[in-house]
Amino acid sequence: MTHSSTTESTCIVWFRRDLRVNDNPALVAAIERGGPVLPVFLYAPEEEGDWAPGGAARWWLHHALTSLSRALDELGLPLVIRRGPSLDALRELVAETGAGAVFWNRRYEPAIVARDTTIKQTLKEDGLDAWSGNAALIWEPHQVRNQQGRPFRVFTPFWKHLRTQAPSPPVVLPELAAKAPDEAPRSLALDALGLLPERDWDAGFPQRWTPTLDGAGEALEAFLDGPVARYAERRDCPGASGTSRLSPFLAHGQLGPRQVWAAAHSTGAADGKGGYTFLKELAWREFAHHLLVHFPQTPTEPLNDAYRHFPWEPDEAALAAWQRGRTGYPIVDAGMRELWRTGWMHNRVRMVVASLLVKHLLQPWQEGARWFWDTLVDADLANNTLGWQWSAGCGADAAPYFRIFNPMLQGEKFDPDGAYVRRWVPELADLPDRHIHTPWAAPDAVLRKAGVRLGETYPRPVIEHAAGRRRALAALQENKERQRQPGD
DNA sequence: TTTTGAGTTGTTCGA
DNA sequence: GTCGAACAACTCAAA
Questions:
Q1: Tell me: the pLDDT tens digits for A164-183?
Q2: CATH number of the domain at A137-169+211-294, please?
Q3: How far apart, in Å, are the Cα atoms of A265 and each of A25, A119, A168, A271?
Q4: Which of A312, A371, A390, A424 is labelled catalytic?
Q5: Does any strand B atom come closer than 7 Å to the Cβ of A395?
Q6: What does the pLDDT look like over A261-276, one tens digit per residue?
Q7: Architecture of A11-135 per CATH?
């Protein structure tokens, strides 16, 4: 590559899940190449296999693109939006502009890896310079191996290994002025992609989120300025603002993990217990991508083969009750309603609702993963897969299947004053603290006074806890016995 | 090479 | 009330 800015051809920068201008290796490399830079976004959900963006993620994507477009405008680089198929769109843009290069940042979902491999090879055969960089991770999955040269399957050794390796620092935008092509290719209007929902179920989203690049920076700063110090304890309390809430920004690449890692260190947050715990969570995100790359079947298949024929009992009514937040367990229903209303759920509650679906209700974990996929603004295939397989006990370093969360106990431990339940399950708001997590056990007079009519204003539990627990353990036993019979 | 011990997030039971 | 054990099976690194 030369830097003779007068002769270098145009370089297309293909934005995907790296919707930022800072710490963006593909953008930086394109600018440094010296020729005009043409940023493009190609909408091609049909190329994502079973994992096209869900409704909540599309809402976020719409706003992230608006924000990216503004940020690129400030660099003098108007964003071109087109629809897929991606390869066709890229070739058309090459033909229209005479571009000589296409740069992008890697994604790690199996369907996308396969597509990108083909695209890179084809573009090279077309005589173009095709290059991909790393915007999404601090450590590349294929560079992390255990002593036997195999991928890690247990987090703690993975984390220990990472701590001996230098993290890659953020990439910095060059001072060189970026140049746009003389003639801008036509672009679709963002609205033409139809990303925003037709029904206005997203009304609660803007109250919770500022899905822009400024919003990303502010969220990071606000977290490192306060909550991080007590993160180790308060991250478990869904009624408090103890978590970072950075996940949707990371999922869309409005923040890169390198930037977060570096900011945690430069502010000194990383030196404290809370900061250390937070960085470990970032490492879990790396671990999730590590697993997705090395075990690409896991979005749909259990990592642990012993669970391949687990005796789930699919039941649409049970699944629907869970999805709608009508299980009769207040902490679970609060979580599911928070998810529906805001596109996000507190991590502690994600574990509780997952446990109830997979264990008490014996629904396949894939159903839960699918619902989360459609409703989370932070939907990320690696994290979602790890989380659900962990909850179901069939994944890497998973909670053992016999570890069954008790939803009352979890509520009493982590939402002791019921603030979280009252916020999301308002029909229970007037119950006293000691009954907020167990309305079915409250005396009639207490229920009447709080205006709660069980089975009418609020459901009774879909399944009694002890019975659900026994049934789950029996299913585990049955699965174990099946394992012993060869061939099944 | 083989063995050993530890491993994100829990609950229940019996002493 | 608290406390330890039991509840699988397997990976990984250190001894």
A1: 889 999 999 999 888 999 99
A2: 1.25.40.80
A3: 21, 38, 13, 7
A4: A312
A5: no
A6: 999 999 999 999 999 9
A7: 3-Layer(aba) Sandwich (3.40)
